[in-house]
């Protein structure tokens, strides 16, 4: 099973590709711009894994919260890549991914220094999406996160989840729709 995970919610675009038992990781270079950061990290991870997009079984993407521009680009890029290659795609919010790593959940520090958390309880951990660390340190700090995204993709595939690229939305858009319905 070959699964790609993409997270562009923070300062860097991160990508991981699981091919069998091996995982290849790649991160963008700071200052590339969101579009170039997303496709560069995907290209690098695929190259390291020795795969082409058509050899993937699924793509998992972090749908936010995080950088509004980069998250929208990552979701759009993922949907287009999956649609074009005939792949399944699964989007998960950072809150859903974080709860898998710690049941108390996760809080995020955004680019303005504001903490965003879900629920009233104290979260299990906090992720600074825009810390001053370099790309290699950021990627190293987020490996467990990327591995959890890969597991989500494998589980969705094993459960034969639909994974329709045309149904992929950012967390921001999902929250807007939920609020509009109430």
How do the strands and helices of this protein lay out in sequence?
Blueprint: E1 2-7, E2 14-19, E3 22-27, H1 34-49, E4 58-62, H2 68-85, E5 88-92, H3 94-101, E6 106-109, E7 115-117, E8 125-128, H4 135-141, H5 143-158, H6 171-181
Parallel strand pairs: 1-4, 4-5, 6-8
Antiparallel strand pairs: 1-2, 2-3, 6-7
Describe the structure.
The protein has helices at 34-49, 68-85, 94-101, 135-141, 143-158, 171-181, and strands spanning 2-7, 14-19, 22-27, 58-62, 88-92, 106-109, 115-117, 125-128. With 182 residues, the protein is of the alpha/beta class. The strands form two sheets. The chain has a five-stranded mixed beta sheet, with helices on both faces. A hairpin with a 2-residue loop joins strand 2 and strand 3 (22-27). The N and C termini lie far apart (40 Å). 43% of the residues are buried.
Could you please say which CATH topology applies here?
Nucleotidyltransferase, domain 5
Cα Rg: 15 Å
Contiguous uncertain segments of 5+ residues? none
Helix content: 40-55%
N- to C-terminal separation?
A: 40 Å
Sheet with most strands: strand arrangement: 3-2-1-4-5
Tally of strands: 8
Q: What's the main sheet like?
A: 5 strands, mixed
| CATH uppermost class | Alpha Beta
The CATH architecture would be: 2-Layer Sandwich
